[in-house]
């Protein structure tokens, strides 16, 4: 088995494409680039491509990952160049590592996401007020959010432990620039927009519209970067 572990960036041009549509687009990219990808067995064979995490529509990122199973070994730099030659605007392949030994799937090992968020501030709100709210949130033992699960039932969860980092970097042009590290993965997962919605609803320091700009900087495995060297 030869696996290509790929890190890529998604820009503004493709941030409103759904995860399913992005998958289809990437499969076409592999075909245009002439990459010989392995297929699954069975009645409905499909390309053996697996994604670390689906990215919410509207977000940009410089830290997305996927695995592609290749039919034969291939140089990582050559694969990167071939894909970038055919990539649409807004998609850039940043790094490729060829793995010859079996590894756990990305989806099963990702635990956190690093994020930068730009959100409009209510006119009356000061920098000190935002820092005060953040301190109050981080002091909480319980922070409950209610949302629908995959079966459509309302479920309440204490998501305080999902917030690993929440800091105000600065205020510029009446927008707060926040740094976050949130739980992200197959076990615990917190959409940053849900956290922003909670802050808007409970503390009224940020504006609901225009929507916040959310950018994923990277994904982590137990606090560590994914090794692509």
UniProtKB/TrEMBL annotation:
Domain of life: Bacteria
Record InterPro entries: DUF2344
Domain (DUF2344) ranges: 5-192
Pfam families, per database record: DUF2344
The protein, known as: Radical SAM-linked protein
């Amino acid at each position: 088995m030869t696996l290509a572990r790929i890190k890529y960036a998604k820009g503004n041009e493709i941030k409103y494409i759904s995860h399913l549509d992005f998958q289809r687009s990437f499969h076409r990219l592999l075909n245009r680039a002439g990459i010989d990808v392995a297929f699954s067995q069975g009645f409905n064979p499909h390309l053996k491509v697996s994604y670390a995490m689906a990215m919410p529509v509207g977000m940009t990122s410089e830290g997305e990952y996927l695995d592609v199973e290749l039919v034969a070994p291939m140089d990582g730099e050559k694969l990167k160049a071939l894909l970038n030659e055919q990539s649409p605007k807004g998609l850039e392949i940043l790094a490729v590592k060829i793995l010859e030994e079996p590894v756990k799937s990305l989806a099963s090992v990702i635990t956190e996401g690093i994020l930068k968020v730009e959100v409009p501030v209510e006119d009356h709100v000061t920098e000190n007020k935002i820092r005060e709210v953040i301190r109050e949130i981080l002091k909480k033992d319980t922070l409950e959010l209610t949302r629908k699960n995959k079966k459509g039932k309302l479920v309440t969860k204490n998501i305080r432990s999902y917030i690993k980092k929440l800091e105000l970097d600065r205020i510029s042009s009446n927008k707060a620039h926040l740094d976050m590290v949130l739980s992200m993965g197959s076990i615990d997962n917190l959409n940053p927009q849900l956290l922003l919605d909670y802050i808007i609803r409970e503390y009224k320091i940020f504006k609901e519209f225009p929507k916040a700009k959310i950018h994923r900087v990277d994904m982590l495995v137990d606090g560590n970067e994914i090794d692509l060297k």
